[in-house]
Specification:
alpha+beta, 2 domains, five-stranded mixed β-sheet, three-stranded mixed β-sheet
Length: 480
């Protein structure tokens, strides 16, 4: 394993960055078509790695013309070089959440919400501090509220399986996640807030219109050109989500009084705080869980009965000894923790990272050093960094106990929350404020699953945002 870092004092040979951007307009367009249609994401990157014999190279990233004025990036695609994107002393995180373009601010009430701000901007610190304070105050609700929502989820799954012989997790999981986050932030059920069961659909439409330039729907090939023209050439208008977003904003504004009161103490205008809260709940929390929870179920399901038996034994033994599902009992479940880390490693919920070089710098891969100039956009495709074969043995394989014992040292290479797993979110960095909450929810989901069931089987699929998981069988727990 290399110990190189993104440092100008490296003894590695300094090489020019390979690759090129092609002709204006046509180069970015060709890269976009290859990325979405002719090759697909991983092959697009892997072919360039093979061609240049380097994990650092120049390329264009979608969407390109006419949505992004400058699609040129330097890609950093190994576990060593990727870390430069997490260092805000070296890269600027201004308006780069979605990469080389910024969705219309009409999607967020005209505000640049916290996710689009660089830590050097004064508003970033006040908003991030507000988020961290909010989550700290809600801390005691996390486990009991999520367990209640999961109980409702498993009832729905069993009901659907008894009717149809299978249960599609994604739709049911989305509904559960929306219920949890709405109840957490609004202290009220969506049904009592006139949102009812419409919440996930309202957020889905709002998310899709912003992220459309970055996705493909997987349509038949003869429709590729039409899809590219529709999704990747011009931004979809925010007016299409205006009334949906207003319903969500009104609900949060009406039922989050105490949270918005608190925001004002941080010097944040009430209206701005509410738009940020909707973004935190909808884009970060709900949007993240929309990809993460199905991936967790998929990989654990595919791992099979042996891992299921080990998880069930650990979970049931510790819950019984500790007298319940608590922060303390969850912390003792080392295999459960490792399984969650492994799911985050093999399929990170956010696959892309961007940052603009703040100064001329030298970035190292395992084998060479490369100079990146001030102002250049740096891009990382997270799944390649977290499946780096020079760091992880059998990187394409889901290994549930990978992070036990000595394996714990590899956690610094698990990048998933705009930071290392070993780092913590602060007001001065860009790591997700809900990082620890996400880990907790994943562990509680596995605990509830294996308190109820001995094993299960799933059918996995691919969606334009993440994976799909369909329960094909569930075996009720024989002992608890």
């Amino acid at each position: 394993m290399s110990s190189s870092s993104s440092s100008p004092t490296s003894e590695l040979p300094l090489k020019p960055i390979p690759g090129n951007y092609g002709l204006p307009f046509f180069g970015p367009l060709m890269d976009r078509l290859n990325y979405f249609y002719f090759q697909g994401e991983e092959k697009f990157f892997q072919d360039k790695i093979n061609k240049h014999n380097s994990t650092i190279f120049k390329t264009n990233m979608p969407p390109g013309p006419f949505i992004a004025s400058n699609p040129k990036v330097t890609a950093v695609l190994d576990a060593i070089s990727f870390s430069v994107l997490l260092d805000t002393s070296k890269v600027e995180k201004l308006n780069v959440l979605d990469g080389t373009f910024l969705p219309s601010l009409s999607f967020t009430g005209g505000y640049r919400v916290c996710a689009y701000l660089d830590p050097s901007e004064p508003n970033h610190s006040s908003l991030k501090s507000f988020f961290l304070s909010l989550l700290a105050k809600k801390h005691d609700q996390f486990i009991p509220l999520f367990r209640t929502c999961l109980s409702e989820l498993f009832i729905d799954i069993e009901e659907q399986m008894s009717k149809e012989g299978e249960a599609y997790f994604n739709t049911l999981g989305d509904s559960m996640a929306f219920n949890f986050f709405f109840r957490l932030f609004c202290d009220k059920s969506p049904v009592d807030a006139q949102i009812g069961s419409k919440g996930p659909k309202l957020f889905d439409k709002w998310l899709f219109l912003q992220l459309a330039p970055l996705v493909t729907l997987g349509l038949p090939k003869f429709l590729n050109l039409a899809e590219d023209l529709l999704l990747h050439t011009f931004p979809l208008p925010s007016v299409l989500a205006k009334s949906d977003y207003q319903k969500l904003y009104d609900a949060f504004n009406n039922y989050s009084d105490s949270i918005l009161d608190e925001a004002e103490k941080f010097g944040i205008k009430r209206d701005e705080a509410c738009h940020n809260l909707v973004f935190l709940a909808g884009f970060n929390a709900y949007g993240g869980s929309k990809t993460l929870f199905p991936a967790l179920i998929k990989w654990v399901g595919l791992a099979g009965p042996k891992l299921h038996r080990q998880l069930a034994d650990e979970i049931r033994t510790i819950v019984k000894a500790e007298g319940g599902v608590t922060f303390s009992s969850l912390d003792k479940m080392v295999l459960t923790k490792s399984v969650v880390y492994e799911a985050l490693r093999i399929e990170p919920p956010v696959p892309y990272q961007y940052g603009k070089a703040k100064a001329d710098m030298v970035v190292n891969s395992h084998d060479a050093a490369f100079e990146i100039k001030k102002g250049e956009m740096i891009f990382g495709y997270q799944p390649l960094a977290t499946k780096d074969p020079r760091v992880f043995e059998n990187p394409e394989e889901f290994v549930g106990n990978r992070f036990l014992g000595e394996g714990e040292k590899l956690l610094k290479y698990v990048y998933w929350s705009n930071g290392r797993e070993t780092a913590e979110p602060t007001a001065d960095n860009k790591q997700c404020p809900g990082k620890n909450l996400v880990l907790l929810l994943c562990r509680v989901m596995l605990v509830e699953l294996f308190l109820r069931y001995d094993t299960f089987t799933i059918e996995a699929g691919k969606l334009f945002l993440g994976s799909s998981a369909t329960f094909k069988s569930l075996t009720k727990a024989t002992s608890i």
